[in-house]
Amino acid sequence: MTESAEKIQRPRTGFDPQQARADFPVLQRRLQGQRLVYLDSAASAQKPHAVIDAELDCYRGYYANVHRGVHTLSQESTSAFEQAREQVRGFLNAADAREIVFVRGTTEAINLVAHSFVAPRLQPGDEIVISHLEHHSNIVPWQLLEQRCGARLRVIPITDAGEIDLDAAAAALGERTRLLSIGHVSNTLGTINPIAELVALARQREIPILVDGAQAAPHLPLDVQALDVDFYAFSGHKVYGPSGIGVLYGRYAHLSEMVPYQGGGDMIRKVSFAGTEFADPPARFEAGTPHIAGAIGLGAALRYLEVQGREQIAAHECALIEEAVQAVAGVPGVRLIGTPKARAGALSFIMEGAHPHDIAMLLDEQAIAVRAGHHCTQPLMERYGVTATVRASLGLYNDSDDVEALVTGLRKVAGIFGLR
Ligand code: PLP
Fold first, then answer.
1. Is 376 one of the catalytic residues?
2. CA–centroid distance, residue 215 to ligand 1 (Å)
3. Model confidence over 66-101: pLDDT tens digits?
4. Cis ω on the peptide bond leading into residue 282 (within 30° of 0)?
5. Could you tell me which CATH class the domain 51-306 is placed in?
């Protein structure tokens, strides 16, 4: 099929990725004289002008520390910072902006829940349930609680397709479960997990739910009230915003009962040597000077996504990942890792006789950026009997030209390794 015929056959979504690409200055770069094909957005997404400008405007125009100042710059910074919080609230459809805690990223959000929500409720032998698909940041914090509190980690198995086994999930959730902590979308396989079904299972047993939304937030429209989750975490840098800023959504009833795990300035109502009264959420969990320009940049990123149309982005990416899966599967020697029915953003594969790092290097020589390694999912690698995969991951700026470039590049690599 010719490139243009392929494009015509893809469903029209009303979203133009080429126009979006023009919003991202780094994507205008050429590498080795060739168009940059960026297929590593699951690791970190590129930034549009709107985000870069928002951060620059903050530093150039009105930057000062937030919350404590009466002077004009501090008031302007505070107002922009709190507007960003409101933007996040809208992005998640949370009921109240006080349910939005700014953190460094998904990792910090999960650690916060581990320390301040789960740890105080744990008795030795209590369980935290995760799945085999999780990123290390949704594994290691719970292992630390195993060491500290005598808790046990239970893992829901997955099928060969890379999907959560719902019967096994039902069996894993029991009287000792203190939290179900589950990724919304797998960063390695792209599997979209059946959150609604998992929430229903957990709710029947009155088990609180944390969703790691690091890979869902860039791709899927979200509604934490409809999802009916207790906590939802995501990172700014994966939704086209700055790094060093992220979000923990938590139900206000939970947040208001939680004791902070970091103390310092800005999170108190009153301090004396006799004791400290904590501020209300979210300030209670935002000790110290926050990433002010980062939060403002994140607000700009979420506004950008809203303007592009989140449903339209999702429809475009859904069609494109399907196209990529079909095309990559046809390259000689390629074996896809995981074949989930519902997938967003990413696909993983290996190639017979070729090390994933060599494949990534040979693609880089063709100006194609993919990631090779374990993708912080070593238990998942073990499940498939591999130590590493090549992962191609999409952003809203990718299109059929990128998929075609990837497949052409891979065919060259296959040729180098003698695969026909
Ligand atoms: N969870 C998932 C599914 C991820 O993909 C990542 C990052 O790759 C994280 C958590 C951790 O995110 P961060 O490094 O931004 O804290």
1. yes
2. 7
3. 998 899 999 999 999 999 999 999 999 999 999 999
4. yes
5. alpha beta
